[in-house]
Amino acid sequence: MRPAAVGRRPPQGVTLHPSVFLTTSGRGGPAHLSPLERFNTAPAHTAEAALLTCCRSRRWAQRLAAHRPYPDLDALLAAADEASYDLSVAEIADALACEVPARPAADTPPAAITALRAAHAAYESRFGHAFVICLDGWAPGEQLDQVLAGIRFRLGNERDEERAVAADELRRLARGRLARTVQEAQVGHDGAAAGPDSPSVAV
Question: Residue 134's Cα: distance from chain center in Å?
């Protein structure tokens, strides 16, 4: 299953999240600045808009934007984790409501697509939001099996238990999306590849 970003965002592609504060032209800042430096110096509303592509929690985005500047990527990711842990049940529910299932890869067998759709429908019927899981570290060919196994296993959770699991997966997704946003922009900045082989995925 092809890695894909999920949420109310543009279709799948190489760049998973709009890097509006990381571009080398326009409002993103001078080209000589690193992506993180451009993020640190971007207008608050610009930084928040980009952060919302990683996690659809307004307070999460506002908090990260307000605590700039960050000395390095690790500090930014640590702040993202801390902000995620502080979200209320209602804020997590709002963020989860903005996640939607990813489309399977074009070469996914029809039987697998049918099984995936049925699993998603069962999960959404039980818990009221899309299934989310971070697939960092899993090869593309293994991701479909991980998603199906994850849904089937988590369907046995009680609502409170699944809420906690989904919140942690959402945190991991936000962290991975944010890291990749900076790292992918760094590719354009210094010409060197960066970031994990397998992106964070919600499906």
Answer: 8
The token pair that represents 158 in the structure block: 């009680």
- Taking the C-alpha atoms of residue 174 and residue 95, their distance in angstroms, rounded to an integer, is 10
Task: Indicate the SS3 state at residue 184.
Answer: helix
Asked if 172 contacts 201 with a C-beta cutoff of 8 angstroms, the reply is no
Q: How far apart are the first and last CA of the chain?
A: 10
Instruction: Give tens-digit pLDDT for 67-95.
Output: 999 999 999 999 999 999 999 999 999 99
Q: How many CB atoms lie within 10 A of CB 184?
A: 21
| Cβ(48)–Cβ(18) below 8 Å | no
Tell me the domains of the chain and their CATH numbers. 1-203 (1.10.3330.10)
Q: Which residues of 73-110 are buried (b: 16+ CB within 10 A; e: fewer)?
A: beebbebbeebbeebeeebbebbbebbbbbebbeeeee
Q: Residues 29, 195: contact at Cβ < 8 Å?
A: no
Q: What is the rounded distance in angstroms from the CA atom of residue 189 to the CA atom of residue 2?
A: 26
Tell me the pTM. Answer: 0.78
